[in-house]
Known about the structure:
Chain A is built from six helices and eleven strands. With 221 residues, chain A is an alpha/beta fold. Chain B is mostly helical and 207 residues long.
Amino acid sequence: xxxxxxxxxxxxxxxxxxxxxxxxxxxxxxxxxxxxxxxxxxxxxxxxxxxxxxxxxxxxxxxxxxxxxxxxxxxxxxxxxxxxxxxxxxxxxxxxxxxxxxxxxxxxxxxxxxxxxxxxxxxxxxxxxxxxxxxxxxxxxxxxxxxxxxxxxxxxxxxxxxxxxxxxxxxxxxxxxxxxxxxxxxxxxxxxxxxxxxxxxxxxxxxxxxxxxxxxxxxxx
Amino acid sequence: xxxxxxxxxxxxxxxxxxxxxxxxxxxxxxxxxxxxxxxxxxxxxxxxxxxxxxxxxxxxxxxxxxxxxxxxxxxxxxxxxxxxxxxxxxxxxxxxxxxxxxxxxxxxxxxxxxxxxxxxxxxxxxxxxxxxxxxxxxxxxxxxxxxxxxxxxxxxxxxxxxxxxxxxxxxxxxxxxxxxxxxxxxxxxxxxxxxxxxxxxxxxxxx
Lengths: 221, 207
């Protein structure tokens, strides 16, 4: 069970002055975070991952406290074990698909890493891109590598930041099925951020709706 | 020269990463201070080095009292002079290329369980390598051509603190024209090669 109760004032220009206050719980399965751009969806995910530090509040996963402003706890990103699928994928441009996926696999045995990496590529039907660099892959292939890489690090939660916003409609529904299947296999919380209502409907699960940034703080769960 | 290049590469890269990725009080002041030798006349930089490290310098005097040794007129002094003068070039080139690496890549590495050091060597450095290599090539060429600051702190002792430009100066003033022109040609070839390689590299695609 993920518990989020966090407050953050935006510092970037354009949104400065407004703030987000978000409070929800998410169990195993999908939790979809919906809202217009600028409403703080990405910020929410980045606060859970530890990339952005909340001003105050509490974030914990089970009994592992990620952030607690009361006790001054702020767990390092690398120790949170979150699988993060970035909106632009953030695949390492100098590493092949296989090496991107192997990057987050624990242990030091290069051979078993390569095997795990290959089995994930096979699972996502993209073993043919094994030795290709991200720049040599299609958008859908990059997207699958990004999801595979996030799962390879043995995460205890997966955070997806508009993971299908860069692929076309037909590809989107196929990839959505694969993400649902991945969740079913791992049975951990998947927090899925999108502004696309039909994606949200396909995923089911809990839904959190973030309001317009100009009316700060209103959240309906 | 070799020692100066290694020192410049390691120290310069550390400062470049610090300036590119962290916000702290006095950051731009530190950058300005480190860049100063790029615009100051080398003799002025050398003068400050004497004030700091000379036998009666702020740091040099306690060192001399303790060990009976001073940077002045030693090869170590020549290395310090070359490092201080070449450092800004290394910092400028590598800071810019580190800043151009998207933070998303580093964040992705952290979420995959890697710490700062491993992320720097496996992600940031490979992606910034063009600027870093350019910085090393140009700053070592600059160190090779050091004249003013070296003369001030380390003097002009053949085989010990004499750099090539100092040898050229001496050759011209003693009328050894052939020696002077030979050395000048060597330095020119090295400099042109360094700039040519840097230009070629910064344009080439590496992945």
